[in-house]
Amino acid sequence: MDKNTKVDEYIRNxxxxxxxxxxxxxxxxxxxxxxxxxWKVPCYTYEGSNVVMIxxxxxYCAILFVKGSLLKxxxxxxxxxxxxxxxxxxxxxxxxxxxxxxxxxxxxxxxEAIEIEKSGAAVDYxxxxxxxxxxxxxxxxEEMPLLKTAFSELTPGRQRGYILHFSQPKQSKTRVARIxxxxxxxMEGKGLxx
Length: 194
What we know:
CATH class of the largest domain: Alpha Beta
Radius of gyration: 20 Å
Number of strands: 5
CATH architecture of the largest domain: Alpha-Beta Complex
Shape: elongated
Order of helices and strands: HHEEEEEHHHHH
Number of helices: 7
Number of domains: 2
Distance between the termini: 37 Å
Strand order of the largest sheet: 1-2-3-4-5
């Protein structure tokens, strides 16, 4: 398997997880995957479809299965990062010993992830209508019908991003502030991060 020079550089420049990234890469490249570099992290694909990624955070590094929610996980090592992540799942590590001890399981899971990709199986994503619209946003829609129209014209992903962003705060006043701070972007047809 050809190694991607951008991944070489990523691992070489890693201050904290160099050994762990090297071992994870070695495990993944035993499978029939192509190595790429996407979203500033190593990404491994099967016939152009993203299957698995390696990434590091302050407290841990991880291997991320793009359609991890479809993996069986008999070893119960897969983690859903947050309740809002629908498809991807991680296996997290805090040291090289953990990576090495889970290597046989990771090899199996990578092969299963490839089989899932080959099969064409798809994750059953929630529709935007399955998410609760915060009462504060609903109230703003009633107050400003043009805002509701602009929101409904956004792509489903942008709508979902706003709904999740507005729903996160515990306090109503914070939810209202987020909505008011985002209204102009919504009116311009832009997403939360545009």
